[in-house]
Amino acid sequence: MGEPLLTSLPAAAGPAVVTVAPAWAVAVVAVLGALALAAAALDGVLSARSASAGGAVGAAGRPLGEASRLLRQRRRTTVQADTLLWRTGGAGLLVAAALMLAVVPLGRWTVADLAVGVVWFNAMDVMVWALVWLVGWGANSAHALVGGYRFLAHGLGYELPLMFALVAPAIAAGSLNVGAVAAAQDGLWFAAWMPVAFLVYLLGVAGFSVWGPFAPALGTDVAGGVRAELSGVDRLVLETGRYALLAAGAAFAVPMFLGGGAGPLLPDWAWTLVKTLAVLALLVWARRRLPALRPDLFMEIGWLVLLPAALVQDLLVAVVTVWRS
Amino acid sequence: MTLEAALLLSAAIFSVGLYGAISQQVVVMVMMGLELMINGVILAAAACWWFLAPDPTGQVLLMVVIAAMTLEMAMGFAVAVLLHRARQTDMTDMATDLSR
Amino acid sequence: MEVLTVLVDIAFVALGVVAVLSGGAVFVVDSMARATYALAVSFVAVGVQVLFLQQSYVGVVVILMMVMEMAVMAVYMVMFMGMNPALMPMSMVHSNRTAVATAVLTFLLLAAGILVVDWPARRGSPPRDVTEALGEALMGPQMLVMAVISPVMVATIVAGVVLAAPRTRYDRFGDDLRQRPPDDPQPGGVGR
To answer: What's this protein's family per the entry (chain A) (predicted)?
Structure first.
């Protein structure tokens, strides 16, 4: 009758990964913060260069200046705002990003070696649907709500292709454990032989970070959209959350598509960081290079182009996997 | 942890959902009541699996429950949209003639 | 180890209480968005409880699906009821007394059954990899379940679209179905 919970099963750990003590979750948050800051600094440099203003050092420090400005700014309040939901949405983005990063192994170590880490990541990126919409809703402001709806419309377009893109590495590795997926690409990275899934995945990361082509939810044509009524520390939390999501998405790409910590000379944790930074830099750079995707038009692209492409990719991967075994 | 405690929690969730499904006038709120009932069923099924018979095939029942929930939601939304378009209403009370 | 077991038990019961209370909040709060996301909290709590019960795949899928569904549900709520986020007192219930009585009676009946029944001891032991076991079951001995659910799902998608879509192909392609390009209120992204 009284079976103990949780404790009686051996952890279904991937062979290549060591689970560290839960206290290391602090390190996860620190790494996430550092990555988000790096992304923001790079974005500052790229902005300054496209505006051809200021030196690179000053531009890299601009996010910090912006942060301190926002910290001193007064928080805006709106009439009859649903403050509980509004604040939950903003702060939740950071939490979701940290929970995503918790399942990503840094070289050999991981904080949470879930047997279903891939699905866990997926569940966390679905959380973002709710959170961004709540930020738009809570302010009791028309423009913010329009932004929230734009994000949900984008979500309907990118989420299913993203899910099926994540399926491809899981099929090839025969496991939903992130460490096992990383260990399975011995020699040949998944990004090399499942490029469609990799590209769709990167597009999905931009999607759930409300980044680049998916920024219409924050568009200037709707007075800033979701963040129209955000100021001061609330705006800082939202922006940090977006960079953190971008960083977590980039970090998750490493074990899924880029061979985890594999690489010459450097130790595996260093390779994980280097690859993460490379993907992150690519995403930050792409922000200015890609056109905005209108939510109404992207819906059809997502369902008629990206989804079938991801499914065909899954089929090919499944056939190859069966053939190899 | 005992099976009884888990089942009592699931029965409480189920009963709250039942209250909502009976008492609410708005179609979407009725759906939320139904979903809460299914939520209780999920907990009960998971608890029975773990405490009574954690064999490999037992989880299939849970997959069926989850599938039933998606069907409920898809058809519920479709009917709610249809009702809204046909009668500009979202209240069950204004669709009582459907039961005749 | 003993202490850990007790802590896990407390966490499990606390999650259950959260699930019940937020489930109750769905029918009490004064805002559509709050009601919807209270239900989402209830589902997340149960999902985590299912994780505690070792069925990690099912637990995570419950969280994933339900948060997504509630995000969509909130849109429907606002669309049909057109409320602003202001916390307007609202009461949209009928036969409240019957409903309360039915719910309480049901709970008492279920509780009595739960406490009276002499539950058997556990049979068998959990598989080493629960998720793998689920996959093996679905693609092996329990294949029929999958084979039945799949067509039902497809039928649901078709039926849902048929019920909900206001326009038919005659609206798009004209009476003789020859009009190209189709007449859509909103152009698609791939230029059909």
So the answer is: Belongs to the complex I subunit 1 family.
Least confident interval from A168-172, A223-227, A232-236, A274-278 = A223-227
DSSP state of A107: T
For residue C36, pLDDT beyond 50: yes
Please tell me the total count of domains within chain B.
Answer: 1
How many residues make up chain A in this entry? 325
CA distance A142 to A137: 9
C-alpha to C-alpha distance for C90 and C108, rounded to whole angstroms:
29
Percent of chain B with pLDDT over 90: 38
DSSP annotation of A75: P
Chain A residue nearest residue C4, CA to CA? A7
Q: Which amino acid is at A219?
A: G
Is there a domain that residue B99 lies in?
no
- Its domain, for residue B63, covers 3-89
Contact A304, A225 (CB under 8 A): no
CB burial readout C136-159, b (16+ within 10 A) else e: ebbeeebeebeeebeeeeeebeee
> Residue A302 carries which DSSP code?
I
Q: What is the mean pLDDT of chain C?
A: 86
d(CA A217, CA A155): 11
- For residue B69, tell me if it sits in a domain: yes
Provide the CATH number for the domain around residue B52.
1.10.287.3510
What distance in Å separates the CA atoms of residue B63 and residue A283, rounded to the nearest whole number?
Answer: 37
Element (H, E) at A245: helix A232-257
Identify the three-state secondary structure at position A194.
coil
**Is C54 at the interface with chain B, CB within 8 A?**
yes
Please provide the distance, in angstroms rounded to a whole number, between the alpha carbons at the two ends of chain B: 48
User: Does a structural domain hold residue B100?
Assistant: no
- Give chain C's domains with CATH numbers: 1-88+130-173 (1.20.120)
Contact B51 A5 (CB under 8 A): no
Which residue, C165, C79, C72, C155, is CA-closest to B71?
C155
Residue corresponding to tokens 């009963």: B15
B98 found inside a domain? no
Selecting from C56, C87, C186 the residue whose C-beta is nearest the C-beta of A114 gives C56
Closest Cα of chain C to A320: distance in Å? 19
Distance of alpha carbon A95 from alpha carbon A127, whole angstroms: 10
Across the range A199-208, mean pLDDT stands at 95
A137, two tokens: 């809703």
Residue type, position A106, single letter:
L
Query: What contacts B78, CB < 8 A, 6 or more positions away?
Result: C159, C160, C161, C163, C164
pLDDT at position A13 over 70: no
Please answer yes or no on whether B3 and A4 come within 8 Å at the CB atom. no
User: What is the per-residue pLDDT across A246-291, written as a single tens digit (0 to 9) for each?
Assistant: 999 999 999 999 988 888 888 888 899 999 999 999 999 999 889 9
Q: Exposed, middle or buried: residue C120 (CB in 10 Å: 0-12, 13-18, 19+)?
A: exposed
Residue A167 has pLDDT above 90, yes or no: yes
- pLDDT, tens digit (0-9, with 9 covering 90-100), for C112-169: 999 998 888 888 788 888 888 888 888 888 899 989 999 999 999 999 989 888 888 8
Average pLDDT over residues A192-214: 93
Say what the pLDDT of residue A8 is: 46
Contact criterion met (CB < 8 Å) for A82 and C68? no
Q: How many residues are given for chain C?
A: 192
